[in-house]
Description:
Elements: E1 2-5, H1 10-21, E2 26-30, H2 33-44, H3 50-54, E3 58-61, E4 79-82, H4 94-114, E5 119-123, H5 151-168, E6 173-178, E7 180-182, H6 192-199, E8 204-205, E9 209-214, H7 215-226, E10 233-237, E11 240-243, H8 244-255, E12 262-263, H9 266-283, H10 291-296, H11 306-312, H12 319-333
Amino acid sequence: MILVTGGTGLVGSHLLFHLIRSGNTVRSNYRTKASLEKVRKVFGYYTDDPSTLMDKIDWVQADITELGGLDNLFIDVDYVYHCAALISFDPKDYKILQRTNVEGTANVVNLSIKNGVKKLCYVSSIAAVGASLKQKEATEDNEWNEARASVYGITKYEAELEVWRGSQEGLNVVIVNPGVVIGPGFWKSGSGTFFTYASKGKSYFIPGGTGFVTVTDVVNAMTMLMNSNIRTEGFILVNQNMTYKELFDKIAPDLGVVPPSKKVSRFMIEFFWRWDWVRSNLYGKRRKLSKAVAKGLYHKEHYSSEKIKSQLDFKFEDLDRAIKFCCDKFIQEK
């Protein structure tokens, strides 16, 4: 039995599709019935009969932060893909990020040890990797610098420490650190917001850039690592390092709109994060741009995937083709 936590998210839903199509026996947790419909929609991108595949999954309603309700999730489980996480860059969400990403991961690790799980794959993030310096690509060996990290990155790094702690207690583990994951179906969160923003024909783009990877590449890397003898290793998953302008230049034509051409100035970014802080404190609104995230927008981060390429002979798919696929699905739904 394979357990996938966070199966109703972007990576989790695509991983479930891959595992079921490959003939595996799979279990996944969910929190609400509505979240299952998101998975059904994703399955529908790749098959005409998503319901049949959905019915092959052993769905268990459970929250990884509620330890008392997790025992049934781990019955007869041999392998665990831990994809569940909360994504937020609002400093006010630090406590809930800590609970979900760190304490939730500790629960998964502890129950994996308790139930004799053979191997665990944890989905972290490049947000938990030390930043690149002087245009050099960041690697898995880069030194962690919490001062430059977002609250999300801090909790993902701390979650990795829980996974490494599990490895010291006898659990076989691997960690993947994907860049911004490009994939269809979640247009109001994560990378989906780039497609939504571009579709509106906006004029402005943010400076800087980062590493990008397709959801298919993430799923393939995870399953290859789990089926290998590799353990106690972490791997950056980045297909291409791009500026946000370069990304919009790829997305916009496939959506039939003009790409944004005006760069948001440093002054505007500095003003906006300060105004956002005042707005949040006066009116209790959610932060849209924290100071740490704003500072990161000035730079183009570079990440190396040479380790996964060399150890698994891994080949990334065509990013442009994957972006076009996402654009086609976006247009069909709008």
